[in-house]
Structures are given as C-alpha cells and as structure tokens.
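Usage

Read records sequentially. Each one opens with the input sequence:
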Amino acid sequence: MVNNLEKQLQQKTLESGNFDFQGFCLQAFRQGKKICDLRQGKTYEFYDIASLTKIVFTTSVFIKLVEDGELTLKTSVKKLLPWYKYPGVKIGELLNHSAGNEWWQAFYKDIDPKLSIEERYTQLQIFIRSAPIKRRRKTVYSDIDFYLLGAILEKIFNKPLLWIWKDYKSTLMPRSEFHFNDNNRSERPLKMYAPTEICPWRNKVMRGEVHDENAWAMGGVAPHAGLFGRIEDLSSWGLELRKMWLGKSSFVKASSLRPFVSRSLPTSRGDWGYGFMIPSPKSSSAGSLLSKKSFGHTGFTGTSLWYDPTRDLLVCLLSNRVHPSRKNQGFIRLRPQLHDWIVQYLEGKR
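and closes with the structure output:
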C-alpha cells in the first residue's frame, strides 16, 4: 500500500516537469525505519551505480585500513606506489580530490582490448605516471584519484581489485547482491538490468555492462565505477553506514568513520570529506534542507545516497537517467527536489 509520503512524491514528481527519463527507485529511512519505498515509472532490478562504487567499496576499505593502522590520510602515495612520481601527494588528497589530477582522461581510447586485464592495468599505470598534476585553489573531482587509490589497494592486499571486493563484501554485506560484471559479462539475464546510454563508441545500448568508458576498458572492475545493485542493496549499505556513524557497526568505529564524512576543506576549495561529498552551499544534489553535517555521494548514471545525521535521515536513489542519452537533465533537477520534499513532509510542511 502506498503511504502518504509516497503519494506526495509521485504527484510532485509528475507536476515538476522534470520526468524526462524512464523511472527511479527511492527508499528513505528515518531513525533506521523505512518511511518510503517508491518505484515510479519503469524500473528494474539492477542498476549501474556508477560513482557510488567510490563509497560503497573503495573509500570504505580505506576507512578500515586507517583504523587498522595500515596507513593514514597523510601517507605519501609514492611510499606505497614507487612508480608514482609526485612525492608530495598524500592519500587524503586523492580522497578529497585536492591532489591536482585532471578530472578525467579518455584512457579507454588508448587501452588495448586485446591485452589481459593485468596488462591493461600496466598500460594504465604508464598513462597515469605521465599525466601532469596541477595544484589548484579549488578541488577538481577526478576519477584518476581513484585509479591511484585502487592501485594502492592492490599493492597492500597483493590481490586484484575483484578479489579485494569479494573479501570486503563477504565481511560487511554477505547477503547483498552488489556485484561487478567481470570482463563486462553478466551471469544474470540482461532484462534484469536498467539500460543506460546508447553509446556511440561501443555502438550499442549499454545494459549489464558498466556505462563508464574507462571502467569498461579495464574489464568492468574499477575503483571508481562498475558496481551493479538493487535499491535494497544500496539501502542496506546505507543503513550499515548509519550504524558506523552511531558506533553500532562491527566493521569500523564511529571515530574512524567521522574524519571521512566531515568537511576536509574550506568551502572556498570544495565540498568534500575524504571520499564522501558534503552538501554544497548552493545547488546540492541533496537539496537545500539537509543539514550541513550530511554526507553521501552521487553517480553519473542517476544514482545517489545521502545521510543526514542531524535528522537521522537516509535517502537512497537509483535511476538510469542517462538512457537513452546523457543529455537528459530532468533527473538532475528532480533529485534535490525529492530530498527537499521528504524533509518538508517530515517537518509537517506538506
């Protein structure tokens, strides 16, 4: 049965004029209890969560490594990756995107698909090693930062990323159906996956294969993108994140999490914790009403997770807004509205 909050969100979404995409799944929790479970439009079982991979996987593993004393946010990248040529760059600067790397490079155009995955990563290492860095006043959100973080994980664990992921998943969320489609092949029927873009480079509708071109060129497993999951999987992870914040998780202590989800930079430089986004003073994807203590992340395909510890409110969203084209902008405008509408409902401003 649809509750009043869900009815209001359905109606407001249709009235907004921003529904230019197939559909979305939204779950919200207040004090750990589900208050909204909405599927609007055409929805699917599995979604490409894009850059939410950064917090669901890579950043979470780094939080554990810091807690275990394996490294610190001030550890030099070059200490762990001798091939990296910039000794002044710290792990924390990769996590909050202040290292000076470019936001993106089209590595996929130069990666040889005939090579093995291991050989492709060697090729990628050469590209990254030759890429310049430029320290800027404002941070630049960069996937290159996370490729370096992925290389650090492989060095520390002496395993490929996929096996690091499997070990982490079995520890934190063994019943979750989050998964990478290794070698861009799915063991599940493609009809279960939300289609993403009609890709001119790959000359097909992307479905069950990661949308991000660089992640795809690396075989579908990457530290910045590549995970697929259900709305239930994202919510379960978000609730575990909440438990970490409250000091009720067996994975890491609250004191270990909090530096990662707290503002690490002045607002003039950027809106970042370490690996986590912090709401921007203007035009935040989390809307205008979540508290300044909120933290989360977004994904290019139309995904997001935000947790407001002041209200003890978790909001998880999955969509395939890039289908059939990334030019669809309605969801970008709708997402902050959805967060605001939820807060307004909870505060009686309906």
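Summary fields computed downstream for this record:
- The mean pLDDT is 95.
- Residues 330-346 form the longest helix (17 residues).
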